[in-house]
Every structure is written in structure tokens, then in C-alpha cells.
Amino acid sequence: MKRFFRNAALGAAVLLILAEVLGVVLLDGVRMDPDLDAPWRRATRERLTEARQRTQTVEAPLRAGFSRARLTPTLGAAVENPVRGEFKSLPLAGYGNRNGKPATGTLDDLWVKAVALEVGGRTGIVVAADALILPRDVTEAAVAQIAQATGLRRDQLYFGATHTHCGLGGWGERLVGEAFAGPFHPGVRIWFAGRLAAAATNALADLTPAALGTGSFDAGRFVRNRLVGDRGQVDPHFNLVSIRQSDGDAAVIGSFSAHATVQGADVMQFSADYPGAWQRSVEQRQGGMALFLAGPVGSHSPRPPKGGHDGAVQLGEALAAETLGALPGISLTNVIVFGQASVEADLPELQNRVTDSLRLRPWAARRLLPPLAPRTFLQAMRLRDAVWCSTPCDYSGELALDLEGAACRLGLTAAVTSFNGDYVGYVIPGKYYHLDGYEPRVMNFYGPYVPDYFDEILRNLIQSVQTVESRPGSVSGSIPANRN
């Protein structure tokens, strides 16, 4: 018996030593120092200076083009053909507790929609997909196809996603990627990228003289702060861009801060959630095309009248009714101010935490997360007196409010969108960093100083497109909008 207890004690000691060694190998302390002079910050600031020097905001007549491409895959194929979107089965992307189960069908179709804009010889395309996010590998493949077909660069493409949690899955890799997108299926990336490229290139081929206006309405009653409730703020603005071609065809771009999570994990069919219902309702009641980009959805949940698919439809239709009420008040003009500014931003080392003060060492975190690049992409696009800013994350609506205030002081309005073709986790106010839970800890990849870092970059990009440098067009040449 003495020998048993001696051996048990020895075994426990060995396990304790191994646990301590493993802890030293895998874990490190969380870094709270923002290191304002870090090499990654300096490199980004240098690129920001270069971006501001080459940015030119112009005022000239507008040409616009519209297009869409169906993103819903065909399931049950005997032989898979990713180019045509034909698969035996695919998972949904959105909720980890679906455990990668395959989709059982389609509630409503998923789409990629695009609006091309050409002003004074400068071209940009807004591309929005009914998807959880736009994964980096998918975006890069789409950009390569668009560049080959049109010659456009990455900085001329403004990507976004609706953030539906009932979207196309199978594109994620490693533990975290597959937890939210289901088992990896490389063919999905082929289909996904091809749909993005098709919508963008066809929109560019549709360019014709057009008029544009921007606006917003207060939709605060449809959104709540899911992180701290009434103790926090929400971004209540539903932002709009209205475009009408000279032949009467129209498009409406909308963006809102509420997560597309009216439908829960029990829904196993493809659906665009409430953004899809908003798009369908606007298109049915006005004609033309409507596309939706998730706004600053970090910490923001929807306030639907009920849950499930019926609740998603009711919320989308309520927002569509507000949209259709706001559109007549938006003035359209053919001569617009247009500018684009962007930068590749270096990222700090990973800070995936296991406790409030301990994190996985970056090499260990990288083995769990989807492949992450050392840089990401942020962008600003000037449309008349509005600036739309794209971010590669679940960007917080509270942070967006500060950015909107900064733009207002420059005489501009601002709209922030998430999921611009990369994904670097949640970016929420640093004051919430020490809270426990999904957003502050599990999905906060890079630490508490990234919010201020991204805010600094976006403010610089807004300033870059503030001043109109040249006026190749003439106001007298404007085409009046056709109004219903």
C-alpha cells in the first residue's frame, strides 16, 4: 500500500510538472501596452501617408451599372461541379452548435449583387453577398478574376456581406473556421469566388448615365446592445444610397447595425435572414435591385417582432417600409463627388485569451484559427457628402458612433460596414475587453488596442477623401433623376 501511494504521488508530481511545462510552452501574459511606436504601427502610418498623397476625390457626371448572381448552391448532385455550384451536400455557416450538419434545402435564395460606379474616369464597384462573411481566400480569388476581366484593382472593390447565419458554409479551415462554417469543402471557394466576380464584371458592363443620392433613417427600435444591454449604446442609423440610371432602372444600397440572427441554429435551410427579406420587399415594391451590407454589427442584435423565419420576414419588411418612406426625401443628381482611399494595415501579434490575463502564444493560436495574413484591408469611399468605410471584422456600433461624429465635424456623414473580404474577429470598445464571454474573449483575436488603431486609420481615410481635388465634370451637365 505504501508503494501504491508513493507511486501515485510520483505520478501526480510528474503530471503537475508536465502541466506547468505545457503552460509555459502554450501560454503567455496578455499585453495591455498599446506600444504606439511598434513597427507594425509605423509601417501602417507610412502607407497611410502614401495613400493620402495618391488619393484624389473628383466631382463629375456619374455612370452606374447593376448586376446580380445567384449564390444558392444546388444540393443533391450525383457528380459535383463547383463551377456550376452543384454539390452533393454542404453545411450552413453561422452557428457553431449546428456541429457541421448539412443544409436540408432553401428557404430563400442567396445572392451576390453589385453596383458599379464610374465618375471622372475613376471606377469603383460595391459587391454585397448574402453570406456570413467574405473569407480572405475567396475574396482574393474573386479579385484575381475581376482583375483579369476588367483590369480593376483590389482598392477599387468595396466588399460586404449581409452576415446571415444561414448562408453558404464549407469555406473555413482549422478548428475555429470549421466550427462556424462546417467541414471544409474546397469546391465552395470556387463557386463563391466565381459568383462575386460574375456580379462585379456584369455590373461594370452595365454602366450608363445615372443619378445618385444618400440618406439614412433612425431604426433604433429594431436593434439592441447584446453585450451590456441598456448600459451601452447602439448605432441606430439605417444608411442608404439610392441610384437611378437614365433609363429608369434603380438600385438601393442599405446597411444596418443589427446582426442577421433572427433565425436560430435550428434553421437548417439556406436563407438571407432579415436582410434578404428587406431586399425582396424593396425590390417587389419599388422595382430594380436592393443590396444589403452588414453595418457595425459588433455587440448589436436585432429586435424582431418574433423569432424564426417569420420574424426575419417581418423585420425585413418593416425596415423596407421605412426605407421606401425615406427614399422620396433623398435628392438625386448626376454630378457627384466620388473618391476612394484604402490601406493595408499591419496587424499586431495574436492575443487569444484563455483567462483575462493569460493568452495562447501566437504560434499556438494560429493553429486553431483560420489562416490569417499579417496585414488586413481598410477602406473609405466618398459618395457626395457621405463616406462609407469598410472593415474586416465584426466592427462595433459604439465605435462607429465615434467615427460618425468625427465625419460630421468635417461636414460629412459616415457609414461603417463589416466583413469587407477578410476577417480578424470582433473589434469592440476597449472598456469591454475585461468582460467574459464570446465577443470580448473568444472572438477578440488581437487585443484591446486594435479599436483605437482601426479608428485612427479610418479617420485618416475619411480625411483623405474630404477635399475635392479636381472637377472634370460640370454641374450644368447633370441629368435629372427619374422619380416614381
Keywords:
disordered N terminus; alpha/beta; 13-stranded mixed β-sheet; 11 helices; two-stranded antiparallel ribbon; 484 residues
Helix content: 25-40%
Number of domains: 1
Low-confidence runs: 3-22, 472-484
**Main sheet properties:** 13 strands, mixed
Based on secondary structure, the structural category is alpha/beta
CA radius of gyration is 23 Å
Principal-axis shape equals globular
| Strands, total number | 25
Question: Number of helical segments?
Answer: 11
Strand content: 25-35%
Span from first to last CA? 92 Å
Mean pLDDT over all positions: 92
Q: What features would you describe in this structure?
A:
This protein is an alpha/beta fold and 484 residues long. The chain has one domain (34-471). It is built from eleven helices and 25 strands. The chain has helices at 2-26, 39-54, 136-150, 174-181, 186-205, 273-286, 308-326, 362-366, 397-409, 438-442, 450-464, and strands at 27-29, 57-70, 74-75, 86-87, 92-93, 105-106, 111-119, 122-129, 157-161, 167-168, 208-218, 223-225, 237-245, 250-256, 269-270, 289-294, 300-302, 335-346, 358-360, 375-383, 386-390, 394-395, 413-417, 426-427, 468-470. Helix 9 (397-409) packs parallel to helix 11. Residues 3-22 and 472-484 have low confidence and may be disordered.
